[in-house]
C-alpha cells in the first residue's frame, strides 16, 4: 500500500496490489477530478475513473465530509446505483454512474471535502480512494473596473486610481500591481460593503496612491502597467484582473504642452482686450450723441415758489 499527498488540497491516493500466480494484480485510481471552485447555482461533474485489473469490482462510493451520498454496486439485486439525502447535495441520478457524479444547483452548503472510494470484491478485498476540497463561490457580475488613471504621467507624479468590483462571495481581496510588482499596502486603501440579501455577498472598492519613480518607466516602451487584481477569499483560481497602461510624458511633450497653454492664455488675453476696447468705444459714442441734447435743453426749477428759466 502506498500513500501520497498534494499541497493545497486535502488529497489522499491509495492503490493496492495483490501478488498472484500471474504476477501483481493492482487496483488504482487512474483519473480523479473534483473542481477547486464552482459558481453558486451552477452544476459540477466529479470524476472517479479506476482500473481493477483482473479483480472484480465490488462498489464505488462517494462521500461529502465523511457522509455517503452515492453508491454504485454492479452486482446489486435491485438497482446498480443508490443515493442518500444530504444537505447541499442535489444529485442527478440519471447521469451519475460508476465513473462520475453530477451535482446540480450548488449552494454554499455544497462546499466540502469529496471522496471517491473504490473497492474490489472478495476474496482479495482492496480499497483505493482519493479526496479533494470543493468550494462554492459567487463570482462578481462585473469588475474589477479601473477608473481615474491617466494615459500619460511624469516621474514624481502620483497615480490616484480607483478599482471596484461587484458583490461576490467570499469576501474579495483587492491587490494592485505596478509592472507585475505588488504595491505596498500602505499605498492602498480598501473599503467593503456587505449586502444583506441572504447570499452573504460583499462588494469592494480600492484607491491607489502611488508616486511614480524613474525606474517604473525603464522599459522599451517607457510605459507603466497598472493592474488591479481581485481574488475571492484568496482561493486559488478565482483571480480576476484588469489592466491599464500609461506612458511616460517626455520633456518635449511637457514643453509643448506648456507652450500651448501659454498661447491659449495669450489668445484669451487678446480676445478680452478687444472686447473691452469695443465696449469703451461704444460708451464714448453714446456719450457724444446724448450729451449735446442735454446741453441745449432749457433747465427749469422752482425757487421760492417761482418758476425760473
From TrEMBL:
Name assigned to this protein: Ig-like domain-containing protein
Keywords, alphabetical: Signal
Q: Does the keyword Signal apply?
A: yes
Which species is the source of this protein? Laodelphax striatellus
Name all Ig-like domain ranges: 41-135, 144-245
One of its Pfam families is Ig_2
Q: Does the keyword Transferase apply?
A: no
Q: SUPFAM superfamilies attached here?
A: Immunoglobulin (SSF48726)
**Signal peptide: which range, if any?**
1-26
